[in-house]
Design a protein that fits this description.
With about 475 residues, the protein is α/β, with parallel strands linked by helices. It contains 17 helices and 18 strands. This is Nicotinate-nucleotide adenylyltransferase.
Length: about 475
């Protein structure tokens, strides 16, 4: 079996059995496996292939909640990042305290842990889990750590357990043998699996071996390589697990190129937020605002330009905005994804031009029900679309919800969605923002036209100038 690397190299894929055996036969590796929720599916591989006594210091499953609390401390939820981190910290420190003096000069200690909710008997639960490894790359080295979040897509518990075992072995093997090549490590996580069986929607590298890793780029790579449909990071650059971040919160999302973030982008969010927070289903609740970039946008000029991506990310971060990277070009797919993360109301802010595209039937040829099916999925859970007006700079006329030129055969559908409140006009806009277009701002930056600075937030201008993003050169 082979896979392609990000540099167009063909790499021989090592099967799960050989990976586990290679780890067992490496005399430097010694540690603990702590697994809760789906059996000891990862450590089973290391027992099964032989030589496990040289690798496994201890294997534990603290299934009972009171037992788990007694060992690792209480947590808000048992399948969450907080619980996983407590498990990794406790088990790794225990190994070092007990074994450092006896074999610390020749051994690299590690702790692998997972806390998982596999398919229950009724089949009614969300099947997901947290998995991680804390390890030393060299004897007496400082610690390094990798954490991932997985969604299990198999419909049978036994198949989910099998998939967990394989991805766990891939993670352990990758930590020991590919920590110097984090992109290759990401590529290897689904060796022996497919994205139809398991999804990895969050990965975080930390510690001494990964001090130069930008986790935002690793989040991008998860989506680019198809390991997940969406990944997310905060304004501080910390990776986020979307379901945990959005849990029980209303969501307002704005899609764009953000190249760069302009005053009009923030005005659109402000207008939508003012309308959205007045809804009875949203009022008084903690609202999450997020800026979203699609892979389609990032690849609009061919391969992804990593510096361009970081420029956009830093510009959004300066505005305090979390960033969602998605492979959901169609809005109905984005809506389906977000509704999986929260039961609260969802809203999408967009310009009039994007709203017009929403009614272009060419985007729905893959759906049996065409455009009708797409809108059925998009507005399924009372989603709101907030439409920001578009200025025609030649005529001075505004395109709004009220005068949008919809095809005659779709006008009744449009009217129905508008009348029932699914599509809402943003009439609370700032007129001075209407004449700002990101492509014009980008061109002014490249041409050293200082007027661009009045078209973006001051914090964005500072980032662009200090880091010379988007072709900026000081005069």
């Amino acid at each position: 079996m082979q896979r392609s690397s990000s540099v167009n190299q063909t790499i021989e894929v090592i099967d799960t059995h050989k990976k586990a055996l290679d780890v067992n036969l490496d005399p430097r590796r010694y540690g603990t496996f702590a697994e809760i929720g789906a059996g000891q599916e990862v450590v089973r591989w290391f027992f099964r292939v032989g030589g496990g006594a040289g690798t496994i210091a201890k294997s534990i499953s603290a299934y009972d909640m009171k037992v788990s609390d007694a060992i690792y401390g209480r947590a808000s939820r048992y399948v969450c990042r907080e619980r996983l981190q407590a498990m990794l910290d406790y088990e790794h420190e225990l190994n070092i305290d007990r074994l450092r003096d006896a074999r610390g000069d020749t051994t690299t200690f590690f702790a692998f842990a997972d806390t998982v909710s596999a398919r229950n008997f009724q089949g009614s639960n969300e099947c997901h889990g947290w998995m991680g490894i804390k390890f030393q790359a060299h004897p007496r080295d400082e610690d390094s750590q990798i954490i991932i979040h997985v969604r299990m897509l198999d419909v049978e518990a036994a198949l989910q357990q099998e998939a967990l075992g394989i991805v766990g072995v891939n993670l352990v093997y990758g930590a020991f043998n590919l920590h110097h090549e984090p992109e290759m490590l990401v590529d290897s996580l689904l060796d022996g699996l497919s994205t139809s069986r398991i999804e990895i929607d969050m990965i975080e590298f930390s510690g001494i071996e990964f001090r130069h890793v930008d986790n935002r780029l690793m989040s991008l790579k998860l989506v680019e390589r198809g390991l997940t449909g969406a990944a997310m990071f905060s304004a501080d650059g910390d990776v986020l697990q979307p379901s945990e971040f959005f849990y029980r919160k209303p969501i307002l999302v704005e899609r764009g190129s953000f190249r760069p973030v302009c005053n009009v982008n923030l005005d659109m969010l402000r207008c939508a937020r003012e309308k959205f927070t007045e809804l009875p289903s949203v009022k008084g609740k903690e609202l999450i605002q997020v800026m979203e970039i699609t892979m389609n946008n990032l690849k609009s000029e061919g391969e992804i330009d990593m510096r361009d991506f970081l420029a956009r990310a830093d510009a959004m971060a300066s505005c305090g905005m979390p960033v969602l990277i998605s492979d959901y070009f169609q809005y109905y797919r984005l809506a389906t994804y977000l509704s999986r993360c929260t039961k609260e109301t969802i809203a999408i802010a967009m310009g009039a031009a994007s709203l017009l595209d929403l009614f272009d039937e060419k985007y729905y040829t893959n759906l049996a029900g065409g455009v009708l099916e797409s809108f059925g999925r998009l507005f399924k859970k009372d989603l709101k679309v907030y439409c920001y007006p578009l200025l025609n700079r030649q005529t001075g006329e505004l395109t709004t919800c009220d005068n949008l030129e919809i095809k005659p055969e779709l006008q009744q559908l449009y009217g129905y969605l508008k009348d029932r409140g699914g599509i809402v006009a943003l009439d609370n806009y700032s007129p001075e923002c209407l004449s700002i277009f990101s492509r014009d701002v980008l061109e002014r930056i490249k041409q050293a036209d200082d007027r661009w600075e009045t078209m973006v937030p001051a914090c964005v201008a500072d980032v662009i100038k200090s880091r010379r993003y988007f072709g900026y050169q000081p005069q």
